[in-house]
Write a structure and sequence with these properties.
- By secondary structure, this protein is an alpha+beta fold.
- It contains 4 helices and 18 strands.
- It folds into 2 domains: 106 residues, Immunoglobulin-like (Sandwich); 161 residues, C8orf32 fold (Roll), CATH 3.10.620.
- The strands form 5 sheets. Strands 1, 3, 6, 17 and 18 form a 5-stranded antiparallel beta sheet that branches. It has a 5-stranded antiparallel beta sheet with strand order 14-13-12-11-15.
- It is globular and about 60 Å long.
- It starts with a strand and ends with a strand.
């Protein structure tokens, strides 16, 4: 399937401001099921754009803006060829077939940052971890589905991700809040977790939670399977319709756009963004 992606973002200010370095994490990571046929990235004409890979091997556009401006804009057009992929096409290592399981010494050493909890994992009133050994995939699918069924989705284009306890207290959240919550619970269970952001292709007439917006989900490291994507916003595993642009430990690591502006006085600002994903 051929997919066309057109992303546009514009930040308008009431007065000309100066800008910090801005990082754009919008470019699909290597995936044997996704082939890049064309790509074009644009931002302010006077910007100096450098392409590099960050700490998590995400490709980023690092943009420097020499002049003050009342407008910062960015755009990305891509044409991708996507092959079908079965999200369940994996075999777990013997030591990870049932939960709870322990990583091997080498796995635990490499995965240590993804196992650290900034705070105690929240307890879910609607799901409990197994007391006795239980199939790993079944257990994690039930957790993923429980979050989808018991946390209401809200569209929130700006602002930091909620802390897990806040998401539970409110009983609602944006996709990045779902992703952070699942990562915290997984780490509390001793499962390495990282956050992911990118594009969700939602075609057809069904409910579209990521329509015209970038999406976020969680990846869990399961021995034998590797990093497996779980989308708690939709209660599903990530398939070929999830196109990953960035992975990392924190929401800032996977933020599609990261930067700030400076002005000696308070100015008003407005952000508008649009995303069109269409098949052909």
């Amino acid at each position: 399937m051929i997919v066309h992606i057109n992303y546009q973002a514009q930040y308008a200010y009431s007065e000309a401001v100066s800008f910090s370095e801005h990082l754009f994490r919008l470019f699909p990571k290597y995936d044997r099921y996704v082939s890049m046929r064309s790509l074009a990235f644009q931002t302010n004409m006077d910007a100096s754009v450098k392409y590099r890979r960050d700490l998590f091997d995400n490709e980023i556009a690092s943009c420097f803006y020499p002049a003050n401006s009342a407008l910062l804009s960015a755009g990305l057009q891509m044409e991708l060829e996507i092959q079908r992929r079965n999200a369940f096409d994996f075999l777990l290592a013997t030591h990870a077939l049932d939960m709870p399981f322990a990583y091997s010494a080498q796995e635990a050493w490499v995965l240590a940052p993804y196992l650290q909890c900034a705070a105690p994992a929240p307890e879910l009133p609607f799901w409990r971890p197994p007391i006795e050994p239980r199939p790993t995939v079944t257990t994690l699918l039930e957790l993923n589905k429980a979050l989808h069924q018991n946390i209401a989705y809200e569209r929130r284009d700006e602002g930091a991700a909620y802390l897990p306890d806040e998401t539970l207290r409110l009983g609602r959240g944006a996709c990045r809040d779902f992703a952070v919550l699942l990562a915290a619970i997984a780490r509390g269970l001793g499962i390495a977790a990282r956050l992911a952001s990118g594009y969700l292709c939602e075609f057809g007439d069904g409910e579209k939670k990521a329509e015209s917006a970038l999406h976020a989900w969680t990846e869990l490291y399961l021995p034998g399977a590797g990093w497996v994507g779980f989308d708690p916003t939709n209660g599903t595993l990530c398939e070929d319709n999830h196109i990953t642009a960035a992975v990392g430990l924190t929401p800032e690591d996977v933020s599609p756009v990261l930067g700030t502006y400076f002005h000696p006085t308070s100015v008003t600002s407005q952000m508008t963004a649009s995303l069109q994903i269409s098949p052909s």
